[in-house]
């Protein structure tokens, strides 16, 4: 391996090395000359790393200059730390303490941290309390509250919940943060929809108020979100709508399930590696044709092998059939993204009642749409910069008038939808299904719900798929290139008419 030269530049405040260190030495006027140095690096094909300290990273001039250099795409941005100008400055200012490792470990952590919300001031706990109070399972059914919230006026109880939050320059504290009886008392006195609407609105307001100052002060244009509270797709939309935010990414497995991935990535980085942004999250188990056919034979179901299975799936959906699809690797995270999905046309809004009834589910939000990536602007507003997040169904968008007219089954009462954008490079087989469906109908979206019965995990194996297919009384099951027809096909149009009549 040839020798490697790493060039790093300590990009820091102006100070006199011969004078005593002082927390007041924070001038950064010299940073304007950094562009001239960078031109030299560009001329020689060198890719430097600029290591910023606190005065540079928090000054308007420093942010403007370094962001401009970074956007050229030929440098890296890192950090280093001068303890005497990095808050909190509570230690004695002396040469020994100019080295971070000589400070107490707790103080080292505080100097590296921008801000922390300490327990019990948790927005996740705040939302879990209403999930429990409304009769659902906390940590599992918060999505039902998101859907329910759209059916009422959040101002009925909004001020009651706003009064729980006390704000200062450091953020907020939450009164009665461990009081589970408040939400239960509200649920006993008011309709569930009023309570859900207030909790959802106040969650959004508090999160936006907390994040916006950092966006403004640090001139951030990109948000990267992880944590269970960011399973709340409406909250993510509100954060993306903060002025100045141009891009947003939510970890696809945003809850506790992502902790193992985070630990592995941390070790990866500590070992000097640089992880790549994943194009997809089809990382789970895969099954070959022999394994699939063995499961079909074991179950004793009639099946046929269909070479052009994508074309057949599209034809069946266009013909008003519900198709359960099992193909390739299982998805990582809580969302079914086409490989372990139940698919149906999005034109009939009554499907949200009769299909959920078959699956023994209780939902207040419509099924999510899977949409061709190339037709995203036809269907969704303000999606530019959030396409990556939308690959994984982690954010809602306001729907266009066209989408509301042609795909009402995928549009919530508030005019939003939580799409999965499907591209040919991330899932060519599923993209082919949608493309063929569009050829037949002119519509680039179908509804996509997870392939599982109520309270069960998303199916993993062919045997899981066959059992859930039979329990859910679905019309067709596509297992790889094998197709299974239900012996008791249901008239879905009649079911829709009956639901509409009720």
Oligomer: single chain
Low-pLDDT parts are none
**What does the average pLDDT come to?**
91
What is the C-alpha radius of gyration, as a whole number of Å? 27 Å
> What is the spatial order of strands in the main beta sheet?
8-17-16-9-10-15-11-14
Q: Which band does the percent of strand residues land in?
A: 5-15%
Q: Measure the end-to-end span.
A: 73 Å
Q: Please tally the helical runs, counting DSSP H or I stretches of 4 or more residues.
A: 20
**Helix content estimate:** 25-40%
What is the total tally of β strands?
17
Class from secondary-structure proportions: alpha/beta
**Biggest sheet statistics:** 8 strands, mixed
Global outline: globular
């Amino acid at each position: 391996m040839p020798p490697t030269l790493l060039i790093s530049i300590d990009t820091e405040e102006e100070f006199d090395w011969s004078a005593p260190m002082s927390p007041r030495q924070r001038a950064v006027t010299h940073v304007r000359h950094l562009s001239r140095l960078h031109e030299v690096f560009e001329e020689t094909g060198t890719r430097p790393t600029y290591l910023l300290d606190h005065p540079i990273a928090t000054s308007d001039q420093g942010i403007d200059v370094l962001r401009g250099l970074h956007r050229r795409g030929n440098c890296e941005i890192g950090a280093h730390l001068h303890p005497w100008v990095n808050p909190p400055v509570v230690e004695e200012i002396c040469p020994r303490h100019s080295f971070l490792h000589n400070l107490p470990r707790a103080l080292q952590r505080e100097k590296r941290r921008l801000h922390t919300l300490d327990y019990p001031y948790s927005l996740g706990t705040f939302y879990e309390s209403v999930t429990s109070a409304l009769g659902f399972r906390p940590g599992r059914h918060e999505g039902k509250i998101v859907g329910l919230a759209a059916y009422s006026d959040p101002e009925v109880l909004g001020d009651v919940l706003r009064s729980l939050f006390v704000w200062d320059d450091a953020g907020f504290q939450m009164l009665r943060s461990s009081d589970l009886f408040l939400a239960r008392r509200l649920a006993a006195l008011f309709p569930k929809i009023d309570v859900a609407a207030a909790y959802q609105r106040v969650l959004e307001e508090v999160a936006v108020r907390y994040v916006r100052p950092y966006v403004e002060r640090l001139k951030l244009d990109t948000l990267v979100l992880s944590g269970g509270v960011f399973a709340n797709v409406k909250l993510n939309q509100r954060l993306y709508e903060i002025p100045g935010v141009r891009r947003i990414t939510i970890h696809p497995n945003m809850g506790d399930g992502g902790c193992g991935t985070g630990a592995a990535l941390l070790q990866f980085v500590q070992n000097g590696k640089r992880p790549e942004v994943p194009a997809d999250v089809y990382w789970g188990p895969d099954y070959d044709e022999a394994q699939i056919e063995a499961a079909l034979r074991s179950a004793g179901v009639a099946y046929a092998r269909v070479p052009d299975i994508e074309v057949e799936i599209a034809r069946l959906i266009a013909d008003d059939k519900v198709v359960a699809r099992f193909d390739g690797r299982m998805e990582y995270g809580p969302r079914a993204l086409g490989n372990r999905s139940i698919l149906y046309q999005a034109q009939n809004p009554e499907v949200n009642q009769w299909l959920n009834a078959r699956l023994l589910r209780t939902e207040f939000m419509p099924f999510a749409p899977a949409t061709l990536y190339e037709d995203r602007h036809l269907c969704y507003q303000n999606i530019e910069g959030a396409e990556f997040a939308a690959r994984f169904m982690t954010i809602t968008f306001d729907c266009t008038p066209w989408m509301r007219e042609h795909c009402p089954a995928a549009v919530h009462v508030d005019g939003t939808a939580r799409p999965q954008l499907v591209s040919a490079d991330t899932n060519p087989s599923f993209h082919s299904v949608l493309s063929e469906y569009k050829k037949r109908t002119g519509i680039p979206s179908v509804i996509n719900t997870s392939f599982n019965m109520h309270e069960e995990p998303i199916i993993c194996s062919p045997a899981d798929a066959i059992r859930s297919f039979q329990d859910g009384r679905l019309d067709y099951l596509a297992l790889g290139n094998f197709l299974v027809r239900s012996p008791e096909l249901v008239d879905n149009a009649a079911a829709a008419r009956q639901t509409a009549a009720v």
